[in-house]
Amino acid sequence: MKELEARIQSEGHVLGEDILKVDSFLNHQIDPNLMQAMGNEFARLFESQGVTKIITVEASGIAPAVMAGLALDVPVVFARKSKSRILSDEAFTADVYSYTKQTTNQIRIEKRFLSASDRVLIIDDFLANGQALLGLKALADEAGASIVGAGIVIEKAFQPGRKAANEAGLNNIQSLARIAAFEDGQVIFVDEEK
Ligand code: G4P
Ligand code: NA
Ligand code: NA
């Protein structure tokens, strides 16, 4: 998506080897117009899939997920994160390890918000190592729901997330921006690779 790539180029900051800071429009301050355009694009990409529900994980997945939900006219459920492992009969739960933060969180969705009759679209802000995506897939699997695919705002294609998701059987992954590499602090998109 050209509009998103342009914003990444103009406002993104590369931190260290592999982190892209985009807190002026996605991860802290949010640009609602850009977010709505992205939601419309997700809706276009998945409109033929019979989506009944969108799931994401708090916090940064919520804004793009809500805009996609608005465009597809389906409810959006965000998995809640907690540090402690709370056992519950009322919730589907999965453990998600963050390589970036080196912590494990439990994510949970109340059972009443996800069922075997759902056709689920997963939305998230970043695809890096894929652990968040795998955790969300695990919640949908626990519910017996069908997963139609995943919509990602920014994929770091040089990290193993897509491969890990594919190996777990999650195949229809659509990313609005795909980053091939960071070179001298510059962002190189997949379609610009030489
Ligand atoms: P994964 O989600 O693909 O498994 O990757 P990882 O464990 O590395 O990511 C942990 C957190 O860091 C996630 O946010 C993820 O969205 C975010 N993240 C990963 N790479 C980048 C990056 O290059 N830039 C930015 N800005 N974030 C990145 P989270 O812990 O779920 O936090 P929240 O922002 O959703 O609250
Ligand atoms: Na994040
Ligand atoms: Na995230």
Automatic annotation (TrEMBL):
Residue positions binding 5-phospho-alpha-D-ribose 1-diphosphate? 128-132
Grouped into one coarse class, the protein's main location is cytoplasm
Annotated Phosphoribosyltransferase domain residues: 35-170
Determine if Protein biosynthesis is one of this entry's keywords. Answer: no
Family annotation (InterPro entries)? PRTase-like (IPR029057), PRTase_dom (IPR000836), Pur/Pyrimidine_PRTase (IPR050118), Xanthine_PRibTrfase (IPR010079)
- Describe the reaction catalysed, as an equation: XMP + diphosphate = xanthine + 5-phospho-alpha-D-ribose 1-diphosphate
Query: CDD domains under this entry?
Result: PRTases_typeI
Q: Which Pfam families match?
A: Pribosyltran
| Chain positions recorded as xanthine binding sites | 20, 27, 156
Q: In the Enzyme Commission scheme, what number(s) does this protein have?
A: 2.4.2.22
* Localization: Cytoplasm
What keywords were assigned to this record?
Answer: Cytoplasm, Glycosyltransferase, Purine salvage, Transferase
Q: Quick one: which pathway?
A: Purine metabolism; XMP biosynthesis via salvage pathway; XMP from xanthine: step 1/1
MF term (GO), any: xanthine phosphoribosyltransferase activity
Specify whether Plastid is a keyword of the entry: no
Family from the record: Belongs to the purine/pyrimidine phosphoribosyltransferase family. Xpt subfamily.
Q: Give the quaternary structure.
A: Homodimer.
HAMAP family for this protein: XPRTase
**Annotated protein name in UniProt:** Xanthine phosphoribosyltransferase
Give the source species.
Eupransor demetentiae
